[in-house]
Specification:
The chain is mainly alpha-helical. Helices cover 44% and strands 5% of the residues.
């Protein structure tokens, strides 16, 4: 029986001041380390900016403006100093700092990068109670040739207290903070210690690239976490049978989106190319036939795309602070997900990995990423919503499409270099295109010529629209 896991205390709300202090510390790191660490630090700055926007404490514009101001401030202050070794100006929030020591002196960029990363992991100035120079001097002393000394012995003459309370040394460059360990456990509440080490039932390489999360924690991380009061579940894992829940969700989607379930056969699946939102009415223009083996490869993408679509829907419904910025961000995520999946998944899925782009001003959902030629409607066919079909027509749709697709597959297998296609994908004759242009187009012209109009392409002054409408597809 699994132990009762106590609920963690709710974290303190994220504030603008936290954003500014965190990003400013990271920005100082960019100045204090070499180019090898810049990408890492810039990525952390981006994550802090995303967090600030997600928490609603700052907008994209406000965040970028603050970073530009701090960068200009550092550039200006450092530009006033002469010589190779320069002193970093006071960080954000510091009132007055006299005789600030050189910011990680020396050209050892590997050493500077290691110290900066560790300093950030432990919470920066707020978490360590000192600026980065003092932190480096205290826990990462250097010899003249760049080596680190006295980690095992402590400083001479000081043996009555722990000289290294944080446990930082040359072997702990990647050691996680307690808060990081707590968050990792919170994100994976069912993981056992072996799972966190990448060796358990729920997390191991055999589960494949999509499901294996890697080695999240070390034995030492787990040991320190337990000492800090973090509870890691133990005992046998009991798997819940979720098939009933999945069937219920599928049934609810089919009823809401298309009226009822529609299926083809074991070889060809009735595939949905748009994310399966209950509020989106599926049609012949966003569904199509896919080989069952190929369709299964898209399951991971379908889940991720649906998650983004649901987030877009929630943002529109609840309209939190900066929701338009957040919608733009979700639009980008959706497009990027589809682009990446098209590169990594089987070629047969290209043009079927749809996603929604939502207009932040109007709230309109627009389906992107779908090749119309791969749908049941085809290039020129009519878009019909399944929910608006009568029940008997909807029931017959799947079996009918199975026969059509079976015939296409048969011709492809028997006739070399053949390209059989649905009628809706066949090229449209030019004359038919012209007829379609004027279909149902009637204008009353003064003088009583009802049902007639001027020919915009020249020719006779009057065209009898009724005659033109009689047989608009006379070439097919």
């Amino acid at each position: 029986m699994d132990p009762i896991i106590p609920k963690p205390k709710p974290p303190k709300p994220y504030t603008v001041e936290q954003f500014k202090k965190s990003t400013d510390t990271l920005l100082q790191g960019v100045y204090g380390t070499g180019k090898s660490s810049n990408a890492f630090l810039v990525d952390l700055i981006q994550k802090e900016l995303d967090k600030g926007i997600d928490e609603g404490v700052i907008t994209m514009e406000e965040g970028i403006k603050f970073l530009k101001e701090r960068k200009n401030y550092y550039d200006t202050e450092l530009g006033k100093q002469e010589g190779e070794k320069k002193r970093m100006p006071p960080a954000y929030g510091e009132e007055e700092v006299e005789e600030r020591v050189n910011f990680l002196d020396g050209g050892d960029t590997e050493y500077n990068s290691m110290v900066t990363k560790k300093y950030i992991e432990l919470g920066g100035q707020e978490g360590t109670g000192m600026d980065i120079d003092k932190f480096a001097e205290e826990y990462f002393p250097k010899m003249a040739d760049g080596g680190r000394v006295n980690f095992d012995e402590g400083s001479p003459g000081k043996t009555d207290f722990n000289r290294n309370p944080a446990g930082a040394n040359q072997f702990t460059g990647k050691m996680k903070s307690i808060e990081q360990i707590r968050q990792i456990q919170k994100d994976n509440p069912t993981f056992r210690p072996k799972d966190f080490r990448g060796e358990g039932t729920l997390n191991k390489p055999e589960l494949g690239k999509e499901n294996y999360k890697g080695k999240l924690l070390t034995r030492d991380d787990i040991k320190r976490g337990k000492a800090a009061g973090i509870v890691f579940p133990t005992g046998k894992i009991k798997f819940k049978d979720t098939r009933g829940d999945q069937n219920l969700k599928a049934s609810q989607f089919y009823k809401s989106s298309q009226g009822s379930s529609i299926s083809m056969d074991k070889i060809n699946n009735f595939a949905h190319y748009a994310p399966k939102l209950k509020t989106f009415l599926t049609s012949t223009a966003d569904t199509g036939p896919l080989k069952a083996s190929v369709n299964r490869s898209a399951e991971g993408y379908d889940k991720a795309a649906l998650k983004i679509a649901q987030k877009q829907e929630t943002l529109l419904k609840e309209k939190p602070k900066n929701y338009k910025d957040l919608l733009i961000k979700e639009n980008y995520k959706a497009a990027n997900l589809s682009k990446k999946a098209n590169k990594e998944l089987p070629k047969g899925l290209k043009g079927t990995l749809g996603y929604f782009v939502v207009n932040p001003d109007t709230g309109k959902f627009t389906l992107k990423g779908v090749d119309r030629a791969k749908t049941f409607a085809g290039i020129s066919g009519e878009r019909r919503e399944f929910k608006n079909m009568n029940p008997s027509e909807r029931v017959a749709f799947g079996p009918t499409q199975s026969k059509v697709q079976g015939l296409i597959d048969l011709v492809k297998s028997k006739v070399k270099d053949s390209n059989p296609m649905r009628a809706s994908n066949a090229p449209i004759p030019q004359k038919t295109k012209m007829n379609n242009l004027f279909k149902n187009f009637k204008i009353r012209i003064p003088g009583g010529s009802a049902g007639q109009m001027k020919d915009p392409l020249g020719g006779p002054d009057l065209i009898d629209v009724k005659k033109l409408d009689k047989n608009p597809y006379n070439d097919i």
